[in-house]
Amino acid sequence: MAAVSSTRMETFLAVAGQGSIRRAAATLHITEAAVSAAVTHIEKQLSAKLIAKSGRGIQLTEAGIIYADYCRTILGLMNEAHAAVQNAEQGRLRIGVVATAGESVVLALLASFRDRYPDVDLSLSIHPRDELFVELRHHETDLVVAGRPPRGAGLVVAATRPSSLVVVGSPGHARDPLAATWLLRGPGSGTRDTTLSLLDQLQISPPTLTLGAHGAVVAAAREGLGVTLTHNDAVEPDLANGLLEVLDVDGTPLDRPWHVVTAKSPPPTARLFIEHIVNADVVGRAAFVR
User: β-strand 92-97 against 121-126: which pairing, if any?
Assistant: First the structure.
């Protein structure tokens, strides 16, 4: 059986992601005929049906779902292999972070890392926790800063930094937090899941308002739209300036350290970044602990 090229795998993943031959072709800037030919070629090589019509688009068959998962891992490993043989100080580093860490924890570390290693090609992506760990398992990112990874995921916690989840609200508007509106992040957020678990623990069903992004949730809390559970280091400036206050809620604060997570064999640039952020002499009080 002839090997399937990486280009055809990428084409198949575009079809899987877009749910449409036409949209995949537009995304890849090639013809629909070329996309269809690539998918047909793969199906013939595998002797398996990977896609099926669904309304005006397509959906993956069970075999297609399995194959797409392998394609992501294979392509991720190919890119990782290229990075692994490069000089760490001149390589590429793809960092994935949850929104809270991206806004309050990682940027200062990235700035000092860039000052030390200006030739490293840095990229930063912000996604919900669950999506980040999927990308890491598929080798589509090199390092993730988020909460604890799921058990049995085959991922490695390389370093941690203490952090706590606290309930905050506007000093001018904060009511009894048990009766206030609770501001939530979008689905897939670890903090959202923890908030809902806390409400269950408190045995209350208050009004909720989902705003999605961390920044929007904190801004809404400042404006008095409700209260929210968030990392203390994400709201330090607002607490210091009196724009927010920590509210006394049973079960809080919650110990939720930040985790730097990698695959079992991280590329050299990821190891270089970890060495940087655990060096307190260089990054000061922002340092992680190995």
Answer: parallel
Q: Are strands 254-255 and 143-146 parallel, antiparallel or unpaired?
A: unpaired
202 with 275, same domain: the answer is no
**Number of folded domains that form the chain:** 3
| Spatial separation of the C-alpha atoms in residues 144 and 158, rounded to whole Å | 10
Query: What are 63-74's pLDDT values in tens digits?
Result: 999 999 999 889
The pTM of the full predicted model, rounded to 2 decimals, is: 0.74
Phi-psi region of 188 (alpha: psi -120 to 50; beta: other; left: phi over 0): left
pLDDT tens, position by position, 136-184: 989 899 999 998 888 888 899 999 999 999 999 999 776 788 889 999 9
Asked if 192 and 53 sit in the same domain, the reply is no
Question: Distance (Å, rounded) from C-alpha 59 to C-alpha 51?
Answer: 6
Listed in sequence order, the residues at least 6 apart from 120 whose beta carbon sits closer than 8 Å to its beta carbon are: 88, 89, 90, 91, 92, 93, 113, 114, 269, 272
Distance CA 182, CA 226 (A): 6
